[in-house]
Design a protein that fits this description.
Blueprint (H helix, E strand, L loop, with lengths): L1 E3 L12 E3 L15 H18 L16 H10 L6 H15 L5 H9 L9 H18 L3 H8 L3 H32 L12 E3 L8 H6 L13 E6 L2 E7 L7 E3 L13 E3 L2 E7 L4 H20 L10
Parallel strand pairs: 1-2, 3-4
Antiparallel strand pairs: 4-5, 5-8, 6-7
């Protein structure tokens, strides 16, 4: 088994082959690769090894990995990773192919439903027009719809699937705005002195959208670098997400580890994370212990000032 990833690893990892530029001991210099970039380099390494073994010497056609640049560029831009030197190369190569019309029918169809001109394709189009439509399927319905769109063989199939994704994205935006307004209605007009967290909870918050709501700036309540924690309840567990942009790669993850008590695990993530609290957790009790590790982490890790802003 081979596992590819691009996130910051946990303390323990599975006992298998792992390809991750952010794991300990990895000398690959581009640490900001998206997941699609990681697997692209795995494919490059595999092809190089097959060449070394003369695998393609018997008339077997060698794959042209350049044909994948439209997918690599889309995945890189849509994941909103840092466009360092390496990622810029991957995205620029994909954009060249798109602008020349060399792209999958599904990507072309997504440009059309998003009303973006593929002849003038930009990273913004992929990150904020195509990407959200693909992600909407996984957030609200079935991620396989987005995958099927990218793998569509002809324009008719691609256009039908892209239209489904567009409708799901419209629904996602409506849910997001409703959730955001509900969260704002629960917040005070101004943040009390010394408070570093805001938590919103409703039973009907959509699990697939809480992360987006948590990433929205809650102005004028919070300064620009504050964020909110949005929570919801579903069956036996409560799910939530939080987001922070105060210091890239210095933000934290939080987990409620057992059903009988509040155990918060502070760990580094790029700019956010998620958690699960079991249904016997009483939400008013959840707010108070949540604030303590957030404030403590904020004081020690970001600015070493107790009043410095962060969020959960």
């Amino acid at each position: 088994m081979i596992v590819t990833d691009h996130h910051l690893p946990a303390e323990t990892v599975p006992d298998c082959i792992i390809v991750n530029p952010n794991q300990k001991g990895c000398g690959f210099q581009s640490k900001s690769l998206a997941g699609v970039g990681v697997i692209f380099y795995v494919l490059m390494a595999l092809r190089a090894e097959l060449r070394r073994r003369n695998y393609f010497s018997d008339g077997l056609k060698e794959p042209n990995l350049g044909d994948l640049f439209d997918l690599v560029a889309l995945g890189t831009a849509a994941d909103v990773v840092t466009l360092d030197h390496n990622n810029r190369i991957l995205v620029s190569q994909g954009l060249k192919r798109m602008r020349s019309g060399k792209m999958r029918p599904g990507i072309r169809a997504l440009f059309e439903v998003a009303r973006r001109d593929w002849r003038k394709a930009q990273p913004f189009d992929m990150g904020f027009a195509l990407g959200p439509r693909i992600n909407a399927a996984g957030r609200l319905d079935d991620m396989s719809v987005g995958i099927a769109c990218l793998l569509a063989r002809d324009d008719a199939e691609a256009q039908e699937l892209a239209a489904q994704l567009n409708n799901l994205n419209i629904e996602r935006r409506e849910i997001e705005q409703s959730m955001l307004q509900d969260a704002l209605n629960d917040f005070p007009e101004t943040l009390p002195s010394g408070q570093t967290t805001l938590v919103a909870y409703r039973d009907d918050f959509h699990q697939g959208v809480v992360g987006i709501v948590a990433s929205r700036p809650q102005r004028p309540i919070l300064p620009p670098d504050h964020r909110v924690c949005a929570c919801r309840q579903r069956r036996s567990a409560r799910f939530g997400a939080f987001h922070s942009q105060f210091a890239p790669a210095r933000c934290f993850g939080l987990g409620v580890q057992t059903p009988s008590r509040f155990d918060f695990e502070i760990r580094r993530t790029r700019n956010g994370g998620g958690f699960r609290a079991y249904s016997n957790t009483i939400f008013p009790r959840f707010r108070r212990p949540l604030k303590k590790p957030c404030a403590r982490w904020c004081a020690k890790t970001i600015c070493r000032k107790p009043s410095s802003p962060t969020a959960a």
